[in-house]
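Q: I'm writing up a methods section and want to include an example of the input and output format. Could you take the sequence below and give the corresponding predicted structure tokens, formatted cleanly so I can copy it straight into the document?
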Amino acid sequence: MILAGLGVLAFSFTMPFTRIAVRGLDPTFAVAGRSAVASVPAALALVATRSRRPPAGDLGRLVLVAAGVVAGFPLLTAHALRYTAAGHGAVVVGLLPLAVGGLAILRAGERPSPAWWASGAIGLGAVAGYSIHEGGGSLHPADALLAGAMAAAAIGYTEGALLARRLGGWRVICWALVVTAPVTWAVSVAATVAGGGLHASAGQWAAFAYTAGVSMFVGFFAWYAGLARAGIARAGQLQLAQPALSLVWSWPLLGEPLTGAALVTAAIVLSAVALGCRPRPAAFDRR
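A: Here is the clean output for your methods example:
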């Protein structure tokens, strides 16, 4: 669970830093570029450790991982964050653990405990209520993009965790980045040419560097290892804490206010995490 927690901590900065990056960079470049940049250390790590190529049967899963966490989630959130605050985006994507848990049941045969379901329902209610409150009584237009991002990430996380049990967590993200490198580099170059070059401030480039080095690379080392060892649904529940952390980081980094509704939502979500992640040895047995 500690490894999964470190992954959540790393990912909690993704929304604020993506919001900063897309202020000066085209969203398509911000996404494809960070994956392209991350593919370089990924390839070097695989070469340095003389890692064998994954079996042919795993290539399909690696494509799903890449489609979810290398392309789908980053691209959809980057576009959504052009129209909504990072805090709002983080809270909506806070429903991700429920999606991951559902796929863990279908794909990994896990059986979450009643406490997991209860905490998920609490988190769902808190996040949905906050989103509707912030949208003035209705869902925000960007919520559709964020919902798509959540679905993409759930697929990538689940398939990656299943692969991590055999390949190791760090190799999963490395291979996913390397497999998609020709596409991400091509899209990055095309986006740069179409946009007439790259024009961003030092702070925006620094934010981009974080999303490339940590959000897209190092963070997944701990995250996939944690999911594989502790159980996809149970460890994934830790991600309910991510929106609360992102809200806190968005205050000093973006100047987004910590509203009463946001703080109450964060408190409820963190309480739900504590409920759902209590050690229950038999609660997540695999069939």
